């Protein structure tokens, strides 16, 4: 994110309110079942949202929490991610291919959750790699926020923001000086 005074600012209160609005959109769609596996994309940004969704939708799973799988996604300035299992950096495309082979099964149902879809390239790459591996009816994508020029639109989201007008997204808890957001 360019260092500027202009951001699409997300306060704790807004994030919380919008999390419940996203949950309502997911619920109203009726797609999630007790067999759904939630995928926590970008755990460093989306863990809270994933857990709120998990708890609030647990009534669809006999009041038990859903299985959750973490999946790393790179910062905008990076093409690699830290693979916690191998304790090494991997190019995202290689990590993603190995992650899909290890964690996803053709007949399972997956809800991929990320706090925001900015450029959309991570979700777009993921979706293209799911083709042939998981039935198209067996996965959905959810984000709180969608950047208006994103190349990917999630199935569920709460609000679009225009980076050129409002600035890049900034959560209240985020480090505004993180150099990995300079893009």
Name its key features.
183 residues; Rossmann fold
Overall SS class = alpha/beta
Overall pLDDT confidence = 92
**What is the strand arrangement across the widest sheet?**
3-2-6-7-8
- The proportion of strand residues reads 25-35%
Number of helices: 5
Taking the sheet with the most strands, its summary is: 5 strands, parallel
The beta-strand count equals 9
Q: Which architecture would the CATH scheme give at its second level?
A: 3-Layer(aba) Sandwich
Q: What's the gyration radius in Å?
A: 16 Å
How many independent structural domains? 1
- Measured distance between first and last alpha carbons: 5 Å
Taken from the alpha-carbon principal axes, the silhouette is globular
- Low-confidence blocks of residues: none
CATH fold description: Rossmann fold
Please write the string of helix (H) and strand (E) elements.
Answer: EHEHEEEHEHEEHE
Would you state the CATH class? Alpha Beta
Give structural notes.
The protein has 183 residues and is of the alpha/beta class. It has a single domain, classed as Rossmann fold. Helices cover 32% and strands 26% of the residues. It has five helices and nine strands. The strands form three sheets. It has a five-stranded parallel sheet with strand order 3-2-6-7-8, with helices on both faces. Strands 1-9 form a two-stranded parallel sheet. A two-stranded antiparallel sheet has the order 4-5. The radius of gyration is 16 Å and the shape is globular. The termini are close together.
């Amino acid at each position: 994110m360019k260092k500027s005074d202009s951001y699409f600012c997300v306060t704790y209160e807004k994030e919380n309110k919008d999390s419940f609005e996203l949950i309502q959109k997911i619920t109203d769609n009726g797609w999630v079942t007790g067999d759904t596996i939630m995928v926590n994309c970008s755990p460093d940004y989306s863990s809270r949202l994933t857990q709120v969704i998990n708890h609030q939708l647990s009534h669809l799973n006999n009041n038990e929490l859903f299985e959750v799988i973490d999946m790393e996604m790179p910062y905008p300035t990076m093409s690699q991610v830290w693979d916690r299992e191998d304790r090494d950096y991997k190019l995202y495309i290689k990590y993603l291919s190995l992650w899909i082979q290890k964690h996803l099964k053709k007949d399972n149902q997956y809800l991929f959750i990320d706090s925001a879809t900015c450029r959309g390239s991570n979700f777009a790459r993921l979706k293209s790699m799911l083709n042939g591996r998981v039935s198209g009816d067996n996965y959905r994508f959810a984000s709180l926020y969608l950047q208006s020029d994103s190349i990917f639109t999630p199935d569920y989201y709460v609000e679009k923001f225009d980076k050129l007008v409002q600035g890049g997204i900034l959560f209240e808890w985020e480090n505004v000086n993180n150099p990995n957001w300079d893009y």
